[in-house]
Amino acid sequence: MSKSFEELISKANQKTLKKVSVSNAQDEPVLQAVKAAKEQNIATAILVGDEAKIREIAASIDMDLTDFEIINEPDTEAAALKAVELVHNGKADILLKGLLETKTFLKSVLNKEVGLRTGKMLSHVCVFEIEGINRLLFFTDVAFNTYPTLADKVNIINNAVEVAHACGIECPKVAPLCAVETVNPKMQPTVDADNLTKMYEGGDFKGCQIYGPLSMDLAIDPEAAVHKGVTNPVAGHADILLFPNIDAGNITYKILVRTAKVKIGNVLVGTSAPVVLTSRSDDFETKLNSIALATVIAGSITD
User: Fold this and answer.
1) Closest CA to 156 of 241, 251, 272, 277
2) Phi/psi at 37 (nearest 5 deg)?
3) Which intervals hold domain Phosphate acetyl/butaryl transferase (predicted)?
4) Is the same domain home to 114 and 131?
5) What is the C-alpha separation between 177 and 156, in angstroms, rounded?
6) pLDDT tens, 199-234?
7) What is the pTM of this model?
8) Please, what's the largest Cα pairwise distance for the chain?
9) Which among 49, 101, 148, 288 is least buried, having the fewest CB atoms inside 10 angstroms?
10) Confidence band (pLDDT; 50, 70, 90) for 146?
11) Contact by Cβ (8 Å): 128, 139
12) Residue at 222 is within a domain
């Protein structure tokens, strides 16, 4: 079981070398991440975008492009579509967002002809390594789905469980997070959490444990769980944190990123291949961690 990104990168090293299709690769942090991924034997890449700018940036970071395929496409939307098409046609295993807006990128991912649709619901998983916590935490969904219904939450959990399995967690513990740990009919997230728990108890979920509603402290802090008398195995030991909506998830995500000592990796799943969906403002380490995460997921499918 991977408990850190160092262990996750080591796990990625053990997989068959994957190829990343980079959409609009003319971005320094993206090229730094791709360079590091190749040097660490995590993945190689096809660079799609403005070739002149790609070569200019590569030269500035001392990146040897000899072993990288470059597809020159200066137009942002055309480059995005070409990068997706490479994955769709099996010429690459992973899609990586480069220097373009998320809405343009996702439009290509969802393209009816060459996109990565599978019929499954798409959802975002952010993996956190947080100083002081002895395991990776899987946040979902903090960036893609806005106000998921109960049915949506079932799909979001199943997607996150697949990611956790790929990272070596055989039976991840899932905590549907709420503001309180009791069911309140006036607070829909608590009702959903209770229903998800009952569905799990009825055998509707496989390969995981689910218990909620749980407040954040009861989900990740064993002492808080003991203090409040919550004895379920998930309490205090959750691996997957299911947020009730994008507001709660994204605010928590940004607070941690800006105030705590963390490492993160982001991936969009439910697609036919892992999609690395990071912010343009993310540093190269986050992008590298995300590539490693996507490599492990891709390897669990194909290796």
Assistant:
1) 241
2) -60, -40
3) 5-76, 79-294
4) no
5) 13
6) 999 999 999 999 999 999 999 999 999 999 999 999
7) 0.94
8) 62
9) 101
10) very high
11) yes
12) yes
